[in-house]
Amino acid sequence: MTCSVSLALSNVKSMSKCIVSYILKLLIRLGCISFQNSPKYISCLNPELELQFQYKVHTSLDVVEEKLSSIGKTSSDVRELYLGLLYSTEEHKMYPSMFRKLHTVYTDVVCNPFYIPGDPVVSKSFDTTVKNIMTGNA
Amino acid sequence: MSTDVFDFPPELCSKPLALIGLTGLDTLNNAVHRAIWDAFSSNRRQYRAPVKFKLLDPAHEFPPMKPKRTSYDWYIPKGILKRNWMNKHLNELPAVVVIFYELDWDDPLWNEKSIECASRVQSVRVALEGRSTRIAVILVQQTAPLPTGEDMLAAERATTLCTSCELNAKSLFVLPHGDHLQGYTHRLENAFYDLAQNYYHHEARNVKSHRDHLNKTTHQYLFVRHLFKMGFLNELKQEGHAAHKNYSQAYSSLLDLRMVDTNALEVKTVAGFINYKLCKLMFQLSLPRDAIAQFRKHTEFFKNRIGPKELTFEHHAWMSKQFCVFGDIFDEAIRQGLPALQTQHPGFYYQQAAQHAADRKEACLELCKAVNVYPEPDPLAGMNQLEFYGQRAWRPGKLSAEPPDPSKEKLGIQALQYQEKHRVNHAMVVIGLLGSAITQFKTYRCPRMRRHLVVQMAEEYYSSRDYGKALTLLTHMLWDYRCEKWWCLLTNILTLALSCAYLSANMQDYIVLSLEALGISSQFSPEQKTRIFNNVMKVLKKTVPDPEPDIPEEELKRARDLWTTAVSADPLAVAVDMTNITACVESKARFTQLQYKADQYVEIEVFIRSCCPHPLQFSRLSVTVNSPSYSSEFAVCESNSKDAHASDNPLLLFNCNEVRRYVCQFLPDVQDVGKEIQIGSILLHLGSDQECSAILRFSGTGAESASSDGMCPELQHFRQSPQNVPDFDNVRPLATAEIVPQDSHLQLEISHDLPALLGEWYPMRMVLVNKEYHRITGITAHVNLQTNGDESNIEQASKLYVTAELMPLPVIIYVGDLEQDSRVEKCFYLRAHRVGNRNIAVKVGQGTQRVENSYVQEKPISVPVVKPFDITAKFFSLKFEPIGKAFVKEPFIVMSYVNCTSPCPLIIEDSAVELSQQVSSVDAEIQSQLQSLRLKSGEIGAEAVCVTVGEARDQPVALGFYTLKWKREGSEGLVTSSSVTLPTVRVESIPLYVEMNLPAHGWHFGCILYVLHNCACCQSINKMKHSLLPQLFGCALYIIARLSVLQEYATRWCTLQLRILPESIHKMDYNLYPLLSGLVALPRLRLTVSDRSDIPIRQPQLTELLERSLPSHVFVMPQGKGNPAAVKVAS
């Protein structure tokens, strides 16, 4: 199942940039819908670095895919929503970290009847919440 | 510069092996010596001792011994690691010197030779003066040695030789060169290895003892040097753990050094060496995690120790080298069996190496901009011959503390910058490293990482102005990003690819990329899209497009020239495969039905959507349809006017987000009947054929748009689409359709009268009427019997005939051509020999040459078969009384009954009785009594035949066959002949037969001639005399005339005795004169057997015979008066 919805956020407050890839594995449990690793929502506070971040997030999907496929094979326990360290290089650490708040906001987006599953997320309230999380105001 | 400053020296990278010097071997002239040398030096496998052999000539000079230092107090080291030290121990200074000498124990010149040997040992010892190199002597002998202790002479002489050579007894070896050379050398080299280990151990301790004299203030370099030496010697000794310990101590001592700009290079170089040794050892000792941790620590520590700012590129080059080398070690360890992970494999290190190489390039670009002159004199002269690793050529051996000469320093830096700028191909370095990384990421299933690296590689190619390669790489990568809908990344790649295409004037790719850039998925700004659109239009108008932004000025001129030639080239039709790109034009096509009849128009709907922000004018739209045999192209929406105005067909002008639907209709080819046709492609021409046109080829299956609706097409229904416009997103493509045969207008009727009668020539009339609008040629009908499963031999039970002759199944009836509205009738017959149902299938085909089995009309017919009649037969006596048996030669009547069971009346044409041999007819000729008889259902026709049987049999006698020729009433067809076997009858023999001839009636008062024939027919009682007493019992009704006058033995009237001889007939005539009229009883004849007992007939039999054979009454007619009929009286 090549299924993962990634939300990438970047926090540029400190020098060490941190990219949080938010993996909604819940969708796997829903089963019927699978998306082909396309980005849902990407936000980066520093627009100059956005391209690099996108590449980073994209490449980290390799590991996600591998982990998901091994999960599918070995155990049926998909309650674990964290996938652990995804990608590590000298300057970036990438964790899929699960923010409950983010999850809630995302659920709201998906519940919008005018939202077509699979499309990128375009929502003001989602934007605001995410920006708040990234800047640490949440 | 062919080799980089930071390339590791080979002596560092090679595996340290104990060095063993062999002397006294003349390999050039002596075959035995050659063989010995080969046995030692060649075929060094893993299992052999870790030693390296070196052949020394007799006058070999070893590296000179430095004077021994007694105190380090005033010694100030000039550097950390001497450049020649490792090489010296690896290749020049042997741990063991082995002296070969040819001497047998029983050599006649033993004394002289032993002295010579001793002098050789002595000269080697002198050459090695001051060193603790071990010396061993090998006596090469002709004879194989005796077991130890048995050869007294050998033991004695060995001792003396050892003494004269001042040699330890354990260092004297014997090598018989006859057999088993390999085995001896193998054992010898293990012995040498022991000696070598001993030597290195000693050396290491020696170095260690020096260390005790050092102090921390001035001798910090020496701490590193000595620890490194110990580590290296331990490695030579193959003591991995000890070496590891020494090296890590050396590494930490190194980190303690004060690092300033002047010694940064040296420290980093040595740090790199020690780190290399450490990591390699740790992988060998199966400590991969430690190795990775050590490397992390190493890079973390030195990451920000850039050194002189002017030489930042040098730092990046060093970092790049560190990562690259670690990647190599890691990769080698994996090849030795270390498992790697998706998240931890050499690829990451190669990638980092590439990253640093890119940084190096950037730093070089920035720092070396101004450097265009190489300083004179060359400050870098003699750089490769410096005494210490990692020092500057212009100030060798200077202590770090000394402040450098600023002018010299400046010149040196300038020289380095010049070299960096002009002699290093940075892009190729980066590309090489990226290539290694890509291979690794591919191996460890990181496709996206690999793609990212490929894009980086393309960027490098772009910067090194290899636009063609860059473009190729980028176009290959586009697809994956497109698939996963990373539009931002896609846009980035598109931008670069467009620049490449522009710079290499690749018109094909330029148009393809532009079309994709204009699409909805790219994230270009409207202004950029406008610029791209205008450029495409320019290219299609054969003019040079405007340059892409951010293109280096110096390349512009060249690109313009390329474009000028490109657009002026003559055949300018660019085919664009739209299957794999998400362009600004999308298309879907579908058949409106799954099946089309051959005479029906095939309809294809083509939907085209443009999301180009500017109006797009196409010149032509066509659809190609593939069938198994050929493909054909159908133009859709052709403009009425000719090509001159083709470019402004309003039907093909698309505004932004406009969707149009076109319908293409065509008649299918008859050849495709029964086959599948499919939409091959949709071709959309952009631009005009005269100038330049791009032919957009869509697959029509919507594969290109599949990426937009992902895995769940159902969800697309939620997408809003403007009203009154075809809902493009929800058009489901249907790319294939089947052509099925058209309905035939050839009318087929079969007429026949049910049911068929058993054995009948049952006629079936097939009427064909042509209702088509044309002539039908070559019509054939196939008639076949169908088994219904349970009847296996249906072909035997029923047969089909066209004429009277039998045809093999299936029966083919050739009808030929049939004009429009004309009809033809063909008849065929069914003969069934068993009752039941028959299923007949009639198929009519138009057997033209081209298409077999088209136009097929098929009709199944079920025909019940019934019996037409039942035939039974009964036997009667001549008196018409039913009899159960017959008697020999006594006539009886066979009566056959034909009981008609057919529902329709039958006409009996003829009937015949065919009697068997034993049976003969009484009448000379048997006339059919049923001829031309019409029998309705339930009626019975009967006929009688009078027959006799010639002789008696034990078995019942078969009478013969009864044959009936019949036909259905009203049929003019063939007459059917049906035969049945007549029943059998039991026949008994009787020796006597009585017959009476009597007229049918008598007249009142007339005379009746009454003749009695007595026939004996029993041949077995031939010659026997029979005495019979016929008695006529008189009655009042007759006046019985006297008996035959011929009767000889008449004794009384009416009673007479007679004898009948075998095979003879006795005839008696009586004249009766009836006195009454009406049915008058006849006088009864009584035969009595005489008393003679040998007569083979009994009285009851005789009585029964008479009862059976003679009529009892006669009808007497009254006679008119006056005219009495003459009565014939027997004379």
TrEMBL record, chain A:
UniProt xrefs under InterPro entries: Longin-like_dom_sf (IPR011012), Sedlin (IPR006722)
GO CC terms: perinuclear region of cytoplasm
Protein's cellular compartments: Cytoplasm, Perinuclear region
Keywords: ER-Golgi transport, Transport
UniProt entry tagged with the keyword Transport: yes
Primary residence: cytoplasm
GO biological process: endoplasmic reticulum to Golgi vesicle-mediated transport
Source domain of life: Eukaryota
Family of the protein in this entry: Belongs to the TRAPP small subunits family. Sedlin subfamily.
Name of the protein in its database record: Trafficking protein particle complex subunit 2-like protein
TrEMBL record, chain B:
Pfam families reported in the protein's UniProt record: Foie-gras_1
Domain Trafficking protein particle complex subunit stretches: 264-518
Domain of life: Eukaryota
A GO CC term assigned to this protein in UniProt: cytoplasm
Entries under InterPro entries matching the protein: TPC11
Protein name listed in UniProt: Trafficking protein particle complex subunit 11 domain-containing protein
Organism: Coptotermes formosanus
Organism lineage: Eukaryota, Metazoa, Ecdysozoa, Arthropoda, Hexapoda
